[in-house]
Write a structure and sequence with these properties.
The chain is of the alpha+beta class. It has four helices and five strands; from the N terminus they run H-H-E-E-H-H-E-E-E. Helix 3 packs antiparallel against helix 4. The mean pLDDT is 81.
């Protein structure tokens, strides 16, 4: 289990992390991401390929859609992250919105990009890219 995931589980489960509790929480998260897939699909249809961004600590916009053009602009303003952002761009261009959704979480820990595959089993559903 990654240290970031472990910290989140401890916070949500009040330091009572059992395999069953962690699995239940993962299931809830996947259900939420499934619902968010509907938003992703609508954004993808109207704005083209992109990523649904979550900023849990932001007071401005905690969720928004970032199409490829905005990702390209972000890459140009962040030369130290150019390689990682390019990988995200390449991945979201390939996303089939009827089968996958692309998410980017931006918080004090940095950023995490993942693609949710709705055709996979629960253990393989979320892939970090």
């Amino acid at each position: 289990m990654s240290s970031r995931r472990e910290k989140l589980l401890e916070q949500v489960l009040n330091n009572n992390v059992t395999d069953q509790a962690a699995q239940s929480l993962d299931t809830v998260v996947k259900l939420i991401l499934g619902d968010m897939g509907e938003f992703y699909y609508k954004f993808h249809q109207s704005d083209g390929p992109g990523v649904l961004v979550f900023q849990p600590n932001s007071s401005d916009a905690s969720m928004f859609y970032m199409p490829v053009s905005a990702l390209q602009n972000w890459r140009e303003t962040q030369p130290e992250l150019e390689e990682q952002i390019q990988k995200i761009i390449e991945a979201v261009i390939k996303v089939n919105p009827t089968e996958h959704s692309a998410y980017l979480i931006l918080d004090q820990e940095g950023f995490r990009f993942c693609i949710v595959d709705y055709n996979q089993t629960s253990q393989e559903m979320i892939a970090d890219v």
